Each structure stands twice: as structure tokens, then as C-alpha cells.
Amino acid sequence: MPSGSTRTGSTLPSELSSASQRQILTVTKLNRLARTILESEIGLVWLSAEISNFVCAASGHWYFTLKDQKAQVRAAMFRNTNRLIQQRPKEGDKVLVRASVGLYEARGDYQLVVEHMESDGEGQLKQAFEALKARLYAEGLFDQAIKRPLPRSINRIGIVTSASGAALHDALTVLARRSPATNIIVYPSMVQGESAAQQLIQALHTANRRQEVDVILLTRGGGSLEDLWCFNDEALARAILASEIPVVSAVGHEVDVTIADFVADLRAPTPSAGAELLSQDQSHQRNLLADCRKKLLRSFKTLLQSQQHRLQILSQRLRTVHPANRIQAQNQSLDRLQIALYQAMKSRLSLHQRQFERATQKLTYHNPQRQLVIQKQRLTTFEQRLSRQIKALLNERKQNLAGQVHLLQSVSPLSTLTRGYSITFKEQQPLTRSDQVKVGDTITTRLKSGQIISEIKGIEGDNKP
């Protein structure tokens, strides 16, 4: 019989006399002792269970029950820990938790204090992710030495993503704001599900076969590890490595990391960041153009000054060595000798007067005003010629730009729609043959303005490729 039971007869006094020798505990001490034993003897455990009775208190703490088919246990996850969980759990979720075993002393309830939580399937996916990451790293697929640099000038960007996803919208918004002149080509693909990896690989192959873009942006929005799993596909990783065109990976949010991020030539934390990385700010381009204009004007001014200086030097040299000057000097010497010979007997006053007249004539002949007029005429001619050349160059550049714009408009799909043509889709796939549909199917015809939704009543035509 337990020691705490009441006995009758002569044994009662002996029981009462031994009670003073027992260790009497309060309920508080008992619960505290039980908590200490649980925490020290069991410690941290990993537990796979289903969540029920989930409550998020006003304090931010989570309280819930972890159960399986035969048992259950209460659990708590405090605010400073649960804020690291990306997605709040809900009733019926299958989770894998790391928790310490303890006891809530106020009620004497045995409970778990959860430190980490993840989807039950996520643990296996993480193990597979780490194993593939280690194997590809050992093969050298992540080496920086084999990564291709991005082109210095990016005029055409290929985007591999879902045609209806938020990632495409974010990337196009950034590119339209920062670099509206950049050409964008979308290679649509699923970015989630069993067939997503194969479609992504096919989109990369299509971009490399066409060779119509300078760089490829591989992107999608955020999600769970399962949502992003197609970007951890080994075949996709090898397709990224084999791409002849540089690949930038922008998958999920900043905390999301995939195998594609390690293999790609460059990683961006988000789709918007990837678009900013590949685009050049329009204001920066305007500043570059303004700098080029200033450099061009300085070059023209320097060239003009150099030519003017050279012209002055040549003019001075010509005046110095010109034969006419020497002949004139000899003639003047001869005149002076003749005058001296025939008029030697004249008075000194007459001689001084004639010398003054000759000096006046010589000064008139070498008047700088005449040379100044000639140089001004030459300078005017050179300025007119330079102005005509600049105007001709600007006109030529304008004509080239207009030709490029006309060429772009002529090959635009929207231009084709403007001329009365249309494009017919079934489930977002373009139709090129009549055997791609059957009677009763719903098709969508896109016109220049709006679209028409039709139902197939009959099929005619040649189905040959």
C-alpha cells in the first residue's frame, strides 16, 4: 500500500511518528524539480508532428498543439524566435520542429518550447539541396574563374520567367523607368511544378539558338523551398553552365538561395534588382552624351586654334623669304645709287627730302592692313567650311537614326497587327496548324485593339508542316 494511504489499528501511531522524517514538497517546488529534470535529462529534440489548436497571442507568441495519430503535446514558440519563420503555420500543417522539453510551472503542464520550425517535407528537400550543392561544387560548377563577364553595353535582354508572373512585371517596370531604349525578349516558361525545370531548360536553349540577346535574366518571385525547387534542378544547372550567353539569376527574395544562383554568372537578390543590374540609368546616358558633346566642341576649338597658329607661322615665313621682297630691295638700292650718281652735287637738304619720300613709299608698301584683310578672308572661309561639315555630319546621324527607327517599327509584331493581321492562341500558345485544335475548343484571337474569344465548330485545311 502506498505510504500516503491511511491505515487503521495499532499501525497508525507509527505512521504518524515517521511523517516528520519525510521530505515534504510544495506544489511549486515539485513543478520546478520536474521542469529541471526534463530540461537537463532530455534537452533538445527533433519532432515530426501535425499542428492543431494554433493561437497567435497579442504578445506575438505562438501557442499550439503537436500531435500524431496516438498522442499530443502542448507547445509554445516565442516572438523572438517565430519572427524568423517566413510563413505562419496553420491548422493541419505537417511540420518538423526542434524544441526543448520543459514544464509550465504555473499549471504543471508538460510542454515543448520550439526553437526552429520547418515544413516536414522541407527537411528532406534541404538535405537533397545540400547534397547536390556539395557535388556540383566538387565538380567545379561554382568556380568564379569560369563565370562569364557581362557585356559592357547591353542593348537586348532576354527574360526567362512566367509570362503572367509578378517577377516579369517588376523587371519590365524597372527597365522601362531606367532604360526604355533597351529591347526586351521574353522566353515564357513555368517556374513552379514538375515540368517547370524542363521548360526553363528549353527556354535557355531557345535563347542560345536564336542568339538575339546580349544577356539572359532567369527570374521568378519569392516562395517556399518547394515552390522554388525547379531552380535546384541539376539539369537546369548544367544548362546554365553551357549557355553561350551570360546568365543572371534573380530568383525569389534576398534570403532565397538556389542552385541556379551558384551556377549563374551573376546573382541578383530579387527580380527588380536583376533588372537594375542589367539596365543603365537614363540620366546617366544623358550625362554621357553631354560629356561627349563638350569633348567634341573642345576638340574642334583646339583644332581650329592649332590651324590658325600654323597659318600665322607660314604667313610670317613667306613674307621673310619671298623673292619679290629681295628684288624690291635690290631695285631700291639701284635707285639710290643712280640718284646718288646723278644728283651727288645737289644740296644735302634735297637729299634728305628724297630719302624721306622713299621711306614713306616703303612704309606704305608694307602696310599691315593689307595682310590683315587677307587673313580675315581666309578665316571666314575656314569657318564657313567647318560649319557646313558639322551640319552635314548631324544630318547624316539623324538620317541613320530615322532609318533604325523605321526598321524597328517594320519588324514589330504590333505593326503586323496594325495592317489587319491577327494572332490566335489556345491556352496562351500560338496556333500555326489546324491539328493543334479540335471541335469544341476555345481559342483567343488577338487583334490590334482587343481580342476575340471563339469556340471551334469545324476544322478545315492542310495539316502538313
UniProtKB/TrEMBL annotation:
This protein's name: Exodeoxyribonuclease 7 large subunit
Its top-level enzyme class, in one word, is hydrolase
Which lineage do the record's taxonomy fields give for this organism? Answer: Bacteria, Pseudomonadati, Pseudomonadota, Gammaproteobacteria, Alteromonadales
Q: Which residues form the OB-fold nucleic acid binding domain?
A: 25-118
**Its gene?**
xseA
Q: What does this protein do?
A: Bidirectionally degrades single-stranded DNA into large acid-insoluble oligonucleotides, which are then degraded further into small acid-soluble oligonucleotides.
Q: Where is this gene product found?
A: Cytoplasm
Enumerate the UniProt keywords alphabetically.
Cytoplasm, Exonuclease, Hydrolase, Nuclease
| InterPro entries, A to Z | Exonuc_VII_L, Exonuc_VII_lsu_C, OB-fold_nuc-bd_dom
**MF annotations from Gene Ontology:** exodeoxyribonuclease VII activity; nucleic acid binding
Q: Where is the Exonuclease VII large subunit C-terminal domain?
A: 141-453
Per the record, the similarity remark reads:
Belongs to the XseA family.
Record's subunit section: Heterooligomer composed of large and small subunits.
Q: This protein's superkingdom?
A: Bacteria
Task: Name the GO cellular-component terms.
Answer: cytoplasm; exodeoxyribonuclease VII complex
